[in-house]
Amino acid sequence: MDFTKKEIQSAFWQLLEERPFGKITVKAVVARCGVNRNTFYYHFQDLRDLLRTSVIGWLDELFADGAGAAAVVAALSRRRAAVMHVYRSLPRETFIEELGVWVRYAVARCVGEGRLFAEKENRELLLSVCRFALLGFLLDWLEGDMGSDLGKSLSRCAELLKNFSLPTSSKAPRL
């Protein structure tokens, strides 16, 4: 990654640890990392783009290290102040939209790396189930001030999914 872009993201994470997302300005980010506004806008459209890019980059780092659900939750917990500042600062709809992007990316990475397997005909359904379940788990966890053991719950779900299979016939069972 470009050194300057990495410095901007590092300054942004530092600021997120200190204050709500809504109280962070481009001016504060560039002052923290010592670049000018034009440099910021060369790399990012706005602060929301910086947020999304930073989270996706952080997930990439975690997955590159082979992190599973428990390790990702532990990493989120280490950045508790930043996570809660984003959660509490963005309008709920905007936060859920962003969280959906991050969850979709994380689940796609897990599938791409073979951590989640399904027959081709069931893959999209399983991906949707995982995305919606993870989104729900994360929202409940954040609503509870990150107090529950989310890593344990996600690890248990992953174990259940390993043993779960959908019928491969084209006829779906009647519910």
Protein architecture, described:
With 175 residues, the chain is mostly helical. The protein is built from nine helices and no strands. It has helices at residues 3-18, 26-33, 37-43, 47-64, 69-78, 80-89, 92-112, 120-143, 150-162. Helix 7 (92-112) packs across helix 8 (120-143). The longest helix is centred in the last third of the chain and has 24 residues, at 120-143. The radius of gyration is 18 Å and the shape is globular. The termini are far apart. The mean pLDDT is 86.
**How much strand content do the residues show?**
under 5%
CA radius of gyration is 18 Å
Counting DSSP E segments of at least 2 residues, the number of strands comes to 0
Count of separate DSSP helical elements = 9
Give the fraction of residues assigned to helices.
over 70%
The N- to C-terminal Cα distance equals 50 Å
Features:
single chain, about 180 residues, mainly alpha, about 0% strand
At a glance:
With 175 residues, the chain is mainly α. The chain is built from 9 helices and no strands.
Topology (SSEs and partners):
Elements: H1 3-18, H2 26-33, H3 37-43, H4 47-64, H5 69-78, H6 80-89, H7 92-112, H8 120-143, H9 150-162
Helix pairs in contact: 1-2, 1-6, 4-7, 5-9, 7-8
